[in-house]
Design a protein that fits this description.
Helix content of chain A: 10-25%
Strand content of chain A: 25-35%
Number of domains of chain A: 3
Enzyme class (chains A, B, C): transferase
Largest interface: B-C, 82 and 77 residues
Number of helices of chain A: 4
Oligomer: homotrimer
Pfam families (chains A, B, C): GMPPB_C, LpxD
CATH class of the largest domain in chain A: Mainly Beta
Organism (chains A, B, C): Thalassolituus pacificus
CATH topology of the largest domain in chain A: UDP N-Acetylglucosamine Acyltransferase, domain 1
CATH superfamily of the largest domain in chain A: Hexapeptide repeat proteins
Shape of chain A: flat
EC number (chains A, B, C): 2.3.1.191
Structural class of chain A: alpha/beta
CATH architecture of the largest domain in chain A: 3 Solenoid
Number of strands of chain A: 40
Strand order of the largest sheet of chain A: 8-11-14-17-20-25-28-31-34-37-39
Distance between the termini of chain A: 81 Å
GO biological process, one term (chains A, B, C): lipid A biosynthetic process
């Protein structure tokens, strides 16, 4: 893969300051880029690296273009342009078109054109796999699933029955979609299973990481709207709804029947309790527990800030005494007022 | 699947208020139910939906029966009856009996009657698979495992060697049972592995979610007693014991050699440190860290409550000053007493 | 497997106090050991079990040798010697050498001597599998991966393309190495994927647990140095570096581009934010969130200590008022000073 700076500028809609014939063969950081790499400046804290970078060209915004030593590709949103460039130089080995002879595909399944079905894939009865879909090795798709066009399930993914994906949905390895929600009725010390009768509905352009779980609904579906992105090891419980464009980072989780609005960001390790509603544009900080509904957009947090262990122990001990401290403070104030 | 209200009442031991001949074809929420659905009221916060529900019948307790617009199925525990009804209307595609030709089953393995062994399953030497067991596609069962009757392992499950399951154990996809516990002896900056010589013993009627890990014991077994339920992405370390009827929710974890009593509930994202003992009937709140043993039943928590980020920052800053604040408060009190 | 105490003492470099001809057939805890078992005392809190132990021999340090009822194996580091003994008595079923006929191995892949390739394994184009490697059933190794000698991947592991493992690397089931990092550029409410062009480089003698995720780099590699140990359900994001001898326990996670030094320990459920640097010898407590870089070795923590729920509620309420409390305390002090 190689592109001239002229071609690159055209594809990005960038203003090129430099030689349009320079050949670019890759993309790299300011620090590691060589003369045949394009680099980028999207975070001003890396600005000090501009003068020393050997990059063949740097993607920058207008206000930083003057600082670029070599060629500059001037754009409105450098990080977006960087994303587009990485896609141009994507070096992932391409899967083989067709159905590997070891795959086990039910006779009642319908496969679209130009699909790639890798070794040991299992596809159940009445599945519909859209045109251009890629199914990685050892992935299992259970009965009655529907995949829109150009979906990509990597190796060792599991889809339970009645899971419907839109178009261009990416699912990474180890992820399980449609397992039973955690629903049980307690009675006399035993748990009686609530059969999970719903399914999972995932929109278009959704990207789901590795070893993540998206459970099927108990009654009705678990729903993930268009343009949602979900990282690794994320728990999405039954009957949850994730609004359009929302992002959930690694190790986060959301409990049953909670609705998260559009364009929310749930940071790593955060947890959202069940049966809540979060408004659009809510940002939950890392390792925060949300236990009440949120009706206003904005950022929310729980927890404390990092401390050396010895100091933390003292604060943690005092936290247990906080109510007493508050009452003693009130007492002093009262007594002080009495004297004033 | 369809049932008359008369049959349904009989199966649930319910008192029917309404027409016994009404035909029910499904189960749904109060809000979404139609005339051929049965619904339920188990949580009084949904009581306001009763008058508007179009459900063909509603499962309720005696004290709410009068509010049901149509037919009512009156029972002592509506949530339990709802669970039983979902089981009646379970629509999961049934697995195919027999052994798929692509499965790789060791000659020394013993398979019970009426088993379902799906495509690409691998079963190791000397395994014993009980009558009626269902093993999902691409699942691996290593040597010397024993499954009691009517166990169900979904697709892409992994059992290491010497894992013993009781009867009616459910294991969801991606779950790994019997991997090595995290045991290493440090010496001169290196970690020396402690071979994990124990196994895993799981009782009857245990339900385990997706992408969960239950490690084998170092010496002796990791033990899960009867009627335990475990959600997705849960970590159960080596030599843990989970007491009868205990529940662990998603993203929770328990470290090595800890014993959890009977009928405990560990909420989502909670963590229990190693080498502890928790009494029966302990309830651990979401995202709580338990670092000391608990000898009395009851609910326990750590952490703080959610706040808008700006306010949280101020409290978090003060938390670091708590010990100083406490000492200054004492000083003021002392000085005040001196004057009084 | 059996060893005389004389042989055992020789292998461990231990001083034997007892009969060298005593035969040992296993290893067990002080409490459960019988006359043919060797046991150990590595944690002084178990010292009270010494007098009652029926162990055939006990591994102890010199200062506790006098308390052993039967034979003693006296060593400098009993826990290390225990680790070595468990390795001697490891009873894991040995994998079958050779390539199972159901495995799908690309013609361009190179397999070393004495490899074990189990059923339904898939190995991609141009992979190089070192001598003595063991690949468990249903594991998928994508194109261009390199495994050093004596690596062991258990069942249902997934390696994406361009993942390089050193020698003697252990990877447990369900773990995914090389999935795409969670990198997206936001623009007008949509996420534009940053193709993840880097790979993963893992050193020698690394041990990785089950259902863990180690993402590939965006530009450049995610790097795990020699002698690192990683537990189950751990998230290692793109472009992270884990320094030599570092340990990460279950359910912990580290976000993108963070560098963790050598010989650090990250306890269970802890989270490390992105773009940070942690010095060598940093210890992060369980369920702690590290959100700033750490330049000095030592232990760090966040959070609060466990409390009964009712008491916790009062402290949590006061935490929200902490800034106000601090200001009122200052006010009182000021007023007090004014009077003094």
């Amino acid at each position: 893969m190689q592109l001239s700076l002229g071609e690159l500028a055209q594809r990005l809609g960038a203003e090129l300051i430099g030689d349009a014939d320079t050949v670019i063969r890759g993309v790299n950081t300011l620090k590691d880029a060589t003369a045949t790499d394009v680099s980028f400046l999207a975070n001003s804290s890396y600005r000090s690296q501009l003068p020393d970078s050997n990059a063949g060209a740097v993607i920058v915004s207008a206000k930083e273009a003057a600082d670029v030593r070599g060629a500059a590709l001037v754009v409105a949103n450098p990080y977006l342009s960087f994303a587009l460039v990485t896609q141009m130089f994507d070096n992932r080995p391409q899967p083989v078109r067709g159905i590997h002879p070891s795959a086990v595909v039910a006779a009642s399944a319908t496969l679209g054109d130009d699909v790639c079905i890798a070794a040991n894939v299992v596809i159940g009865e009445h599945c519909v796999i859209g045109d251009g879909c890629e199914i990685g090795a050892n992935t299992v798709i259970s009965d009655h699933c529907v995949l829109g066009r150009d979906c990509c399930l990597r190796a060792n993914v599991t889809l339970y029955h009645d899971v419907v994906l839109g178009e261009r949905v990416q699912v990474h390895s180890g992820t399980v979609i449609g397992a039973d929600g955690f629903g049980f009725a307690p009675d006399k010390g035993r748990w009686h299973k609530i059969a999970q009768l719903g399914g999972v509905r995932i929109g278009n352009d959704v990207d789901i990481g590795a070893n993540t779980c998206i459970d099927r609904g108990a009654l009705g579906n678990t729903t993930i709207e268009d343009h949602v992105i979900v990282d690794n090891l994320v728990q999405v419980a039954h009957n949850v709804r994730l609004g359009e464009g929302t992002a959930m980072a690694g190790n986060s989780g959301v409990a049953g029947s909670t609705t998260i609005g559009k364009h929310c960001t749930i940071a790593g390790g955060a947890g959202i309790a069940g049966h809540l509603a979060l408004a659009d544009g809510v940002h939950v900080a890392a390792m925060t527990l949300i236990s009440k509904s949120i009706s206003e957009s904005g950022a929310y947090a729980t927890g404390t800030a990092q401390m050396p262990m010895q100091e933390w122990r003292r604060s943690a001990t005092r936290f247990r005494q906080l109510d007493s401290m508050a009452k003693r403070l009130q007492q002093l104030e009262k007594s002080h007022e009495g004297k004033a």
